Amino acid sequence: MEFLFLIFLSKPVWMWLVFLAIVITLMVFDLGVLNKGDHELGVAESLKLSAFYIFIAILFGGYIWWAWSSGTLVTSDGTNPVAAYFQGYIIEKVLSIDNVFVISLIFGYFAIPRKYQYRALVWGIIGVIILRGIMIAIGAELISTYAWVTLVFAAFLAFTGIKMLVVPEGDTDVSKNPVVKFVSRHMNVTKDLHGQKFFVRAPHPTTGKLVLFATPLFVALLVINVADLIFAVDSVPAIFLITTDTFIVYTANIMAILGLRALYFALAALVHRFHYLKYALAVVLIFIGLKGFYSYFFGKFDPYLSLAITVGIIASGIFYSLWKTRGQPLEGRP
pTM value? Predict the structure, then answer.
């Protein structure tokens, strides 16, 4: 049992295993209990399930507070892990909201019925857990080797925030997505869905032999995971400017993403009411970028003040959006 106390990415192995056990349990619960059969998630059920995931994330934040206060958890960079975890969680959550529209377009392009969408999103989290882990490990190694990389992250975030403020959003054409083009040229893909199956065996149109075909559900899942990887280009540098502790970076990211799958169906119906949240998020990214420069040259920025500023900006964006769009009906089904 000594291996449980070995250090991996600045934390004991047992601490990583506990977190992964929580994630696996939630995935099994999602796929094996909540979504055992074909199930169409409504807005009300989506909000309830999302509240459950937020509760789990808050509980885990409580565990981080307990571990930190008892001396069990010490961050590798000396930052306050509680403030860093919640600030990273909030930023990742809001960035995820901004990505719902793209996911909705992908499902629409492949004509994926709502009753299959949730299962695809839950399976997608498995890919996200692996891909985010790789990106975070690379980011941590770069920062530990070249401290000036934080300045690159800071400049990138500030630039991204300014771009979001001044450049209007363009139309997203899924048919022009490189992944869609690649799959259509190099894989056998069925024209029709086959329930919840990602792959089926069917006769080849030329040879007549049974070969393996991917279904549109699998292609949609693949495109969504690649899109999430692109989304991570914003979120991973953002949280690395809050803390460089890989455990806090990874857990905050994954906890936020876990809940997105549940919240998606409510967000898809409400996203038009959060128009001004994009501008609040842009201001937060600029703030985090500037804070990165400040921390590099002058020392650590107060973590609780940083958390309060982030929450204040995001809350202002949410309330202003809801006030400006009051009276507008929900899109989609209740």
Answer: 0.84
